[in-house]
Amino acid sequence: MDAHFSIKIEPDRCLVHIIMGGFFSNEDVSDFRKGLTERLYKLGCSPNDHVTLCDVSAMKIQTQDMVGVFANVVGDPVFRSRKLAFVTGSTLARMQTRRLTNRDGVAYFTDVDEARTWLLQK
Fold it and tell me: Which residues lie below 8 Å from residue 79, measured CB to CB, with a gap of 6+?
């Protein structure tokens, strides 16, 4: 598999910036969950008070099974953020990303800067 991800945090803004690309396996998602858990612990915000920028523009179309696995991560109360902005590439990828969650506080963008601006608005 060619999955890759990075998770950076900005504690002063309670911001988590995730970049994901490639095609993910169960093991890759497990590694991602572990990394996200570690970063959230270091972020220092109150639980669920952070905002998340998730750039998946380099993601390949995932299998339905992997979409389900990712939906479990997105839906996990431990990871839930106050606002979640997805940056997607293709229309098909955006449609697949929309299947991950239907909760309030989620928006979809094609531009990272626009997503970041939306996240940091009060």
Answer: 36, 40, 73
Q: Is the pLDDT of residue 49 over 90?
A: yes
- Write the pLDDT tens digit of every residue in 97-115: 777 777 789 999 999 999 9
- 22, two tokens: 């490639």
The CATH superfamily assigned to 4-120 is SpoIIaa-like domains (3.40.50.10600)
Q: For the chain, give the number of residues.
A: 122
| Segment 21-41, tens digit of pLDDT | 999 999 999 999 999 999 999
- Phi, psi (deg, nearest 5) at residue 89: -95, -90
Among the listed residues 81, 10, 93, the one whose alpha carbon sits nearest the alpha carbon of residue 47: 81
Taking residue 101's Cβ as centre, other Cβ atoms within 10 Å add up to: 16
Task: Mention every residue, 6+ apart, whose C-beta is less than 8 A from residue 42.
Answer: 9, 11
Which structure tokens are listed for 63? 């299998």
- Is 50 exposed, middle or buried (CB count within 10 Å of its CB: 0-12, 13-18, 19+)? buried
Domain ranges across the chain: 4-120
